UniProtKB/TrEMBL annotation:
Start and end residues of each GHMP kinase C-terminal domain: 289-371
Positions bound to substrate: 37-40, 228
Family: Belongs to the GHMP kinase family. GalK subfamily.
Site residues (Transition state stabilizer), renumbered to this chain: 31
The protein, known as: Galactokinase
Entry-linked Pfam families: GalKase_gal_bdg, GHMP_kinases_C, GHMP_kinases_N
GO molecular function: ATP binding; galactokinase activity; magnesium ion binding
Protein's cellular compartments: Cytoplasm
Keyword Transmembrane: no
Active-site residue numbers: 178 (proton acceptor)
Top-level taxon: Bacteria
Domain GHMP kinase N-terminal: 97-185
Domain Galactokinase N-terminal, first and last residues per copy: 10-61
Length: 395
C-alpha cells in the first residue's frame, strides 16, 4: 500500500494535480516461463505464470486529445507528450512507444478513444531482463483504456491487441505467450497454453517448501536486436520443407520425437535440424511438466527444467556464457530442484526452483561463482505466482 500511496503522491506532483484529484491505479504483472521456450511461435505449448511484481500505473483522464506519460524508471526522459491525432512510432519517445502503440491499435480496431490521459508508470520488473516488461506495459495500457473509456472488450482480446502492438507498431515478431500470461495470470497457478489455438488450462503451482528464484544476468538484451527473428525464420523454413514433402502438419510442434526423426532428412538446412529438434522435444517436456505438477512430482519437474536448458544451449543455441554460468552454478547448489534460462535468451534471466531453507546460500554462492566467471553482478528476485493485469482501485 505504501508503494501505491507514494506513486499517487509522485503523480500529483509530476503532473501538478490538486491533492483532492481522484486517480485510478492499475497493475500488470511480469511473467516467467517455467518451461517451454521458443516454441510459442512453433505451435507448441508453454507453461508460464504471472509474478507478484510488475508494472503500476496512476492515471487521470483528460478533456483534450493530449497524452502525457512519465515513468519512474526513466526519470531523465521527463514527461513524454503526444496527441490522439499523431500516434506514430517515434524513436525519441523511447519507452512511451509501447503505450502509444496500444492506443493506436485499439483505435484501428474500432474502439472509441476520444480523449487523452495523464499517466505515471512504475515497474519493478528489470528492464531488458526477459521477464516481459514491454508486454506488461502493453497489457496494462489495454486495461487502462478499457476502464477509462468503458470499452466492451474481454481480456483475451486485449491480450491479442497487445501482441499486435508489439508485432506491428514496435516491429518485434513476438509470440502471444507474454501478453497472455500477464493478462490471464492467476495466483498460485501456472498456465498451460497452446499458442496455436489459445486453449489454456490452469495447474495448481503451490510450492510448499520451495520458491521461484529469478536471477538476472544484468547483460542487457534488446529482443528486437537479438537473433530471435533469425531463429524464427529458420523454423518457418524447416516447416515449409516438411510440408513441401507431404508431411501433414500445421506447425513443428504437431510432431513428436519419433515423427521428427523419421522426417528430418527433408529439412534442407543442416542448421535448422537441431532447431526443430528443440521445438519438438521442448513441447514434449511441457506436457510432462503439467502432469508432474498435477501429480505433485516436483523433482521430475525440476529435471525437465534442466533438460530444457540443455536443449536451448545445444540445439537452439540461445543461451550464451552468462546464462550458462548462472544455470551451471545453480545446478551445483544444494536445494536446487531445477534451473534453466527463461525468456528469449542471449542475456536476460534464469528461473530456478529452490528449497526455502537453501535460498540464502543459493543466492550467495551462485552470485559469487557467476561474478568470478563473467565479471558481472547478478540480481536475484524471489517470486511467487500472482494475479493477472487489473485495476487496483480509485484513490
Amino acid at each position: 500500500m505504501e508503494l501505491i500511496n507514494n506513486l499517487v503522491k509522485n503523480f500529483k506532483k509530476e503532473f501538478k494535480k490538486d491533492d483532492k484529484t481522484s486517480v485510478e491505479v492499475f497493475f500488470a504483472p511480469g511473467r516467467v516461463n517455467l518451461i517451454g521456450e521458443h516454441i510459442d511461435y512453433n505451435g507448441g505449448k508453454v507453461f508460464p505464470c504471472a509474478l507478484d511484481f510488475g508494472t503500476y500505473a496512476v492515471v487521470t483522464k483528460r478533456e483534450d486529445n493530449i497524452f502525457r506519460m512519465s515513468s519512474e524508471n526513466f526519470k531523465d526522459l521527463g514527461i513524454i507528450e503526444f496527441s490522439l491525432d499523431s500516434l506514430i512510432y517515434d524513436k525519441k519517445d523511447d519507452w512511451a512507444n509501447y503505450p502509444k502503440g496500444v492506443v493506436k491499435t485499439f483505435l484501428d480496431s474500432g474502439f472509441n478513444i476520444n480523449s487523452g490521459f495523464d499517466v505515471l508508470f512504475f515497474g519493478n520488473i528489470p528492464n531488458g531482463a526477459g521477464l516481459s516488461s514491454s508486454a506488461s506495459i502493453e497489457v496494462l495500457t489495454s486495461v487502462i483504456l478499457k476502464s477509462l473509456f468503458n470499452l466492451d472488450i474481454n481480456m483475451v482480446d486485449m491480450v491479442k491487441l497487445s501482441q499486435k502492438t508489439e508485432n506491428e507498431f514496435i516491429g518485434v515478431n513476438c509470440g502471444i505467450m507474454d501478453q497472455f500470461s500477464i493478462g490471464m495470470g492467476k495466483k498460485d497457478h501456472a498456465i498451460l497454453l497452446d499458442c496455436n489455438t489459445l486453449e489454456y488450462s490452469y495447474a495448481p503451482f503451490i510450492l510448499n517448501n520451495a520458491s521461484i528464484i529469478i536471477a538476472n544476468t544484468n547483460k542487457r538484451r534488446g529482443l528486437g536486436e537479438s537473433k530471435y527473428n533469425e531463429r524464427r525464420a529458420s523454423c518457418e523454413n524447416a516447416l515449409k520443407d516438411l510440408k513441401d514433402n507431404g508431411i501433414n502438419i500445421n506447425a513443428l510442434c504437431d510432431m513428436d520425437s519419433e515423427k521428427f526423426e523419421n522426417t528430418k532428412h527433408f529439412i534442407k538446412s543442416e542448421e535448422a535440424i537441431p532447431r526443430v529438434r528443440h521445438a519438438v522435444t521442448e513441447n514434449e517436456r511441457v506436457l510432462k511438466a503439467m502432469k508432474c505438477l498435477k501429480d505433485g512430482d516436483i523433482l521430475t519437474f525440476g529435471k525437465l527444467m534442466n533438460d530444457s536448458h540443455k536443449s536451448l544451449k545445444d540445439d537452439y543455441e540461445v543461451t550464451g556464457l552468462e546464462l550458462d554460468s548462472l544455470v551451471e552454478a545453480a545446478w551445483e547448489e544444494e536445494g536446487t530442484i531445477g534451473s534453466r534460462m527463461t525468456g528469449a535468451g542471449f542475456g536476460g534471466c534464469t528461473v530456478s526452483l529452490v528449497k526455502n531453507d537453501c535460498i540464502e546460500k543459493f543466492i550467495e554462492n551462485v552470485g559469487k561463482k557467476y561474478k568470478e566467471k563473467t565479471g558481472l553482478e547478478a540480481t536475484f528476485y524471489i517470486g511467487n505466482p500472482g494475479d493477472g493485469a487489473k485495476k487496483l482501485g480509485d484513490f
